[in-house]
Amino acid sequence: MADLTDADDAASPTPPGKRERLIAAACDLFYRQGIAGTTLAHIAEAAEVPLGNMYYYFKTKDDIVAAVVEARTEEIRSATAALHRVSCRTSRTSPRGPRTWPDCSPLPWLSLTVRSSPSRPPTSMPGCP
Q1: What three-state secondary structure class fits 7?
Q2: Which listed CATH number (1.10.10.10, 3.30.300.30, 1.10.357.10, 2.40.70.10) goes with 16-87+108-119?
Q3: Whole-model pTM?
Q4: Which CB contacts under 8 angstroms, 24+ apart, belong to 58-64?
């Protein structure tokens, strides 16, 4: 007789790991409470991760802030790339006349990166004012 638990395990999605849960919890808490009002203990509690494990993944609060910024940047980059792909699949001219759709050449600003150093605040690459 076949074991049904194996089929259930294969069909169910893999739950997020501790690091992903910590980043998601931090993102939510930073949004609701602000960065200054959120402690590493708050993040660990919200992610249901022991505080000691929090320090395994992120040594400082700055490290988790950078991870949240990186995760959100990747979400924006993916969404922008998806919109770009959709606009490039459409006709190059409008049904109402010769107006052209956006140029579908590669977008150099999609390579957005966040840089920071102790002497200056984070900045972005070309594409952001």
Answers
A1: helix
A2: 1.10.357.10
A3: 0.59
A4: 58/22, 61/35, 64/22, 64/23, 64/26, 64/40
Give CA–CA dist 94/86, Å, rounded.
15
Is 22 buried (19+), middle (13-18) or exposed (0-12) by CB count in 10 A?
A: buried
40, 58 Cβ separation under 8 angstroms: yes
Task: Give the pLDDT confidence of 51-101 residue by residue, as tens digits.
Answer: 999 999 999 999 999 999 999 999 999 998 888 877 766 545 555 554 444
Q: Which residue do the tokens 């990186």 mark? A: 70
> Looking up tokens 């708050």, which residue turns up?
42
Contacts of 41 (CB under 8 A, 6+ apart): 51, 54
